[in-house]
Amino acid sequence: MTMDKLISSPINNWLTTCRDADDIVLGMVGRLVRNLSGYRFPGWSTREDRDAVSRILLPALRSLRGFRDAVCAEMSDLSFEQRRALLVRKQLTPCMAARQSGCHLLLPRKRNVVCMVNEEEHLVMHVSRNGNSVREVLTELRKFAAELEQKVSFARDSRNGFLTSMPGESGDGIQLYSMLHLPALSISNMMPQVLKAMEKLHLNISPYYSDGEDDTGNMFIVYTIPGPLGSTDELSEHFRRVLKDIVTREMQVRRKLADEPGLVLEDKVARAFATLGYARRLSLRECRNAISVLRLGRVLGMLQGDDGEDVRESLSRFRELDTALALCTALSPAEEEVAYPIARALMTRRFLADIRMNFF
Amino acid sequence: MSAAGCMLMFQVKKCHICGKRASISLTQIVNGQVSELALCEECARKNGLFDPGSLSFSEKFFPEEFKARMDKIVRELTERNSESAAEDENDVLMRCPTCGFELPTFRKTGRLGCPDCYTVFAREISLESAADESAGEKAEINEKDQLEQALREAVEREDYETAARLRDQIRNLYPGDAS
Ligand SMILES: [Zn+2]
Ligand SMILES: [Zn+2]
After folding, report:
1. Full-prediction pTM beyond 0.90?
2. Which of A11, A75, A192, B68 minimizes the number of CB atoms within 10 Å of its CB?
3. pLDDT at B179 over 80
4. Cα of B105 to ligand 2 centre, how many Å?
């Protein structure tokens, strides 16, 4: 399989498939980082360093179960468009997208795993799952780590744990990320409180879209700070509990919004439907916010899909639309001025053709 | 030329930091103001503009971040020129034999050059983490309690692998404690 074939194949991760019908915790990514002794960290390594690191790590990765027929590419061989598509598909990190020769991307075909050699550290591995699946992600990540340790000895010491380019990040070398859709908390202007709470709980939160359009689509990423050696078990349970609390809170506010007199939420959903269904020009921001509100409307039963499509199916289609829109992102002001707003409006009009309004 | 109004060119100039032949020259146009910066490859790397060949990509993907990095370098250059105080001789002499990384670079960037730097700069690294720890000493006591609790639980459920790991972790973190 070639990289181009892979890029044009359907995405089958949390981006396009929905596990939880409440549409709050969309998915989870676990990040594992490891380094090799005797070689410079990728941030300032030489071509020779990078090649030597690749020669050690690539065969080790290939030997993992299910990795033999993985698609592999050196970053210098990937075009700008390929990188952008991989970024949207979450099969590449922004840091890696800017890398060149001696840096390799390895994508096993049937697994939701991304392996990057010479990203910010010598080895970076991402495992992703749908929904709130902290334990599953962690188990899988540790399984890979253990298998790799049979073949490669990673840089570590008893005091710092696994060594990384930033001393503060050494330790277990594991980080957990969750992608959250929080329309009710956002609409009710409660996100500042959530942000403050996350700070107190030693978790990071940032807007999901990092393309300059901050805070759009009511999507956020909550993630752990890399913990010291042996801290991950506790940290991940803490993370799991916090995510559960966020879900509970979002659900409460949703119920409150839905029960509010004066049809305020219904009005928002109907307007979003009209915007996406009839607009001739749409900015990315307008588009994402309207989709978020429609998703909320779908979960609350205000909208229905055709042919009795169930909520999960509808939500998955919404996510596919999100992804298609992300691929259709202007890079220059000129493009944004002319072609993209029209293309977006066309896409959303077509999409809404299959969705029925169901206001009582 | 691109979204953020940043431009990238390649010309022969002298490095603004060390005076050696510059391999990259960055022209940044922000709000009509042109600022120019020439760097040799080594200084560019040391300042976080890693892998100069990838700059065109960084610029396209993250115009904001790119601008922030440029601004940081310009700021640091200004500070450096005004201070120009000689750095501690011992610091300059401390150099990682594997990667050539020097202590001042770690102090400035918070990053290390390679895993072996952990041994070479051990003192500096532990000083840094000690500074963090003294701020959160209470948190550490809690952490120790939690670790010991986790150890008791692991022994109870006969998960000796985890128990051994926790025991080692407690020993590593609190070497003075006999318990
Ligand atoms: Zn220089
Ligand atoms: Zn070093």
Report:
1. no
2. A192
3. no
4. 11
